[in-house]
Amino acid sequence: MPAPPFQVRTTTWACSVCGADTPRAYRMGMYAIGETRFNLVRCRDCGLVYVNPRPAEATLGAMYDDESYYTDGYNLGVEDQNYFERKDELIALAGVAWERIEEETEGQGRALELGSAGGFFLEAARRRGWDVSGVELSPPAVRYCKGEFEFPVFEGWLEDAPYEPQSFDLAIADNVLEHTTDPRATLRQLRSLIRPGGHVLVIVPTYVNSGFFRLMNLAQRFLPRKLLGPKLCGMLKFDDSDGGYPYHILEFNRANLVALTKSAGFEVLSVEGSLPRPAHLFKAKDLSLVNHLWKGIFILLDHLMGLRLAPAARIRLLAKRPVHSTE
Ligand SMILES: [Zn+2]
User: What is the pTM of this model?
Assistant: First the structure.
């Protein structure tokens, strides 16, 4: 991997869900910045998997300044096109997601998205009558969003954003918590910004902290790469695939995500597992026989995850700030 355009500094840390500091090794050398490799460890107490040592704050900031985050790193091999090229498709998909959110909450209101990226999710909400605001750390993403859409986006950290307490009906952190150094503090900040009775929607990837990943870790020694193809090998995060920058410093599972959300002062309403559907299987027109088979496996696993019969590769959690909460 080429040398990065910034200095790499690292720091060690304890489990950010339960505070324990005696993790065991989980996967060595999973990620890299230039010559610096990063390992995953697993908390013995709550099962959180995390990068340790992790990049220090300044290094984390520099990682997100890199434009390639959205063009190369963002889809982790699941998609064929880069994030910005998928604008229309992502706004349409977000519209479907918002339909469901409106059924689960109290309909349109004021929504805040933490990590609003290019703004596609919020634009879909705005078109449905929501009053939307975004917070985003990545300068290229903010530039893009401001160039394309009309709603306000704050560039920077959530704690510096100029919002009144209890001024939102809904907060969203979609693929955000796994990037944070203190996910409980992040959830608490979101909680303070939503009104009592308001909702928070959290979506996190959980594949790396699932039995599937552990099984694949063992099985990759025996599985012929040819049968899987390079895309699946990358998605399954085999040893020889380039993990890239350590963007995902936390890997939750169902139990510790629920515990974390409760400890941040929320009432958990629903938790649902699913499996992202890779573009090379679900959007391609002519599938080989092997890929037909894989597509079927993905559909089956997605159903099993939804039914809680298999560990989830992605978790969607809806929680509520208690109606009678004051602080
Ligand atoms: Zn822990």
Answer: 0.89
